[in-house]
Specification:
Blueprint: H1 8-23, H2 27-45, H3 50-65, H4 69-87, H5 94-107, H6 111-129, H7 134-142
């Protein structure tokens, strides 16, 4: 069985390899690989698919490591919009995206937006995991 270089299974493997590079501290290589995987996923799945959203979130993390804050924020915004549309506004899958985007907004000085995002994450975490959960405590420490 052969795969073309643009096969969606190649994209999944490329994401995994990119995450290894990111863990090893090679953010530039991870970024290149994630951008390649993203292009394949957008073509194969469409621009609003949850696989695309996951890759956008991973790419945002790498952009953060490279101090590309504006790009990091826009990637997280796009990922959040896809996941909210896919799962609804109260799904626990949004918690980490909301926390990450809130942190980026806080660092960029957009404290009102950060508070809105973190409060949203807090409501979901309290409902999903309980008021005394680790997720809730982590969000509260960010507010």
């Amino acid at each position: 069985c052969e795969f073309s270089k643009d096969d969606r299974r190649i994209a999944a493997s490329t994401v995994n390899i990119a995450l290894v590079h990111a863990q090893m501290g090679d953010a530039n290589r991870a970024k290149d690989l994630l951008e390649r995987a993203l292009a394949i996923e957008e073509r194969e799945y469409g621009p609003s698919h949850r696989e695309v959203a996951a890759t956008l979130a991973n790419l945002a993390a790498v952009c953060g490591a490279l101090q590309e804050r504006s790009r990091q924020e826009s990637l997280l915004e796009r990922s959040l919009a896809i996941m909210e549309r896919e799962y609804g506004p109260n799904h626990s899958i949004l918690i980490n995206l909301l926390r990450n985007l809130g942190s980026v907004c806080m660092r960029s000085g957009n404290c009102q937006r950060a508070a809105t995002l973190l409060e949203w994450a807090l409501r979901i975490a309290e409902s999903d995991r309980g008021a005394k959960s680790a997720a809730v405590l982590e969000i509260l420490s960010s507010l």
